[in-house]
């Protein structure tokens, strides 16, 4: 990665396109003028910059990006790679990325990237169990934030120190830093509800460890309240929308805008998750139709996670799962799923109960329990008759007719087929 001056960018792009100075100059300027720009001996006017961007097929913004901005962007990449390396335990690689970032930080005197690198050095030393050195780096990081009034950036430092202290059983210091984190929200410096919920959670745990049960209960309730709101994304989105409206009414447009963006992102995520859930569900059905039940189960389980709180879709997913488990001879999983469906489907959900009895019948048949299979068909048929669900009654009779035919009970089978046909004809006539 390299930081380029404007002239170096022009020259690099010209070389990429295999163009000569004369090619670039065209009839607009002289090759000498282009050469002066490339050697940084002359700054082009905006008209010439527009011409160069058009001729070299690249954006004006690319040419106008300052060296400091480029260095800042490169440092951001190195810091991201360093953090990833720490997370996966590749400490030497992390150290090298931090060193690469330091090179640009020192050359271009970058303030925020320097603070970020100090934070990463702290993380790295904590991973190596060098706590004194780690806290020194984090202190230096906070000095930069304080000097330049970046109060909102304190949170990562405070939380890292607090969690480290809690891991080392230095509980009073841990609690102190968790409260420093909480204060950022109380003072209105930060508004990230997810982070605040985490702060409450860790305070509840820390107070429990020191034996202060009243404080632990207080922060457990606060944490639970936040997480309850956030666990239902649509409700959380509405909550953020209300916060945006409240701030708008109070004339705090910056905060209102921030909450509005957060809310919009939540609703967009909900839409994407809904689409993915539908895709996974459909893939499951396709594999089920292809009799590739292992693959079907994988996709049904994925859709189950994505549907989360959509009870109706969760019922459908589990109906398919129970049957797939039956085909795979996974008896325990099949019956466990059927028991779950017994709890999910309410007594007054007549169509839901009919579907459940039909799946139960199929599963019992797959496990060679023919009496159980027939009994569940009869239970489904009774509901359909009692509630005058003619279409379902006809379908169930067809299933029973097929069952009796396979058992050699031709007379019973034909009677059921005849009744089923009569219902269908009657229904067709009514329509």
TrEMBL record:
Annotated localization: Cytoplasm
Main location: cytoplasm
Key words, A-Z: Cytoplasm, Repeat, TPR repeat
Signal peptide: none
Record-linked Pfam families: HTH_3
Family annotation (SMART domains): HTH_XRE, TPR
Example GO molecular function: DNA binding
Residue ranges occupied by any HTH cro/C1-type domain in the UniProt entry: 10-63
Any one of the GO CC terms: cytoplasm
InterPro entries named among the record's database cross-references: Bac_ResReg_Asp_Phosphatase, Cro/C1-type_HTH, Lambda_DNA-bd_dom_sf, TPR-like_helical_dom_sf, TPR_rpt
TPR repeats: 277-310
CDD domains: HTH_XRE (cd00093)
PANTHER family in UniProt: TETRATRICOPEPTIDE REPEAT PROTEIN 29
Family under the similarity heading: Belongs to the Rap family.
Protein known as: Helix-turn-helix domain-containing protein
